[in-house]
Amino acid sequence: MHTKTMEGLVGAMTNMNLLNTPMRVFKEAERKGDTATMERAMGYVGDFSDKVEEYKAEAEKGMKEDAKEAKEKAKLQQEEAIRKRKEEREKSEEAIEENRNVNTDADTVKLSREGKALVKNNPDTHATDAGTDMTKSDAVKEPVTYTKVGEAVSMEQGTSISVSV
Predict the structure, then answer these.
(1) Each residue of 46-67: pLDDT tens digit?
(2) What is the pTM of this model?
(3) For residues 42, 48, 52 and 57, what is the CA-based torsion angle, rounded to 10 degrees?
């Protein structure tokens, strides 16, 4: 809290408390009919209320300064957070780029003469351009139906299946 704000609030509160005494004297003098005491008490009330207004203005000025400082502090914290996030993003992008560079190196396989001969002689597999093996049974499949016990039965032309629920 800014010092002007504290000084304004304390001064206003103190003068409000001091204002109660002349008001009490005014009310007592009014009951008695003592106009001179009433006028004097009202003079004190006026003085204290003027001081309350001065301190109130000072407190408002201090609160405006507090708000301005708080905005500046929040702006600095936001800029710092943005800077930190930017640094973290750059670090993570560098790490991702390093991982990409590491992962892009393809593994190569060299086959010996015996291995090449085995690949040529094995009719079930063939090498593709991507370097993967695929069996011929995976490439062409005939439709198969399974029985209640889980045995595979090949489909014949003209066979119909009836399902009831």
Answers:
(1) 998 899 999 999 999 989 999 9
(2) 0.44
(3) 100
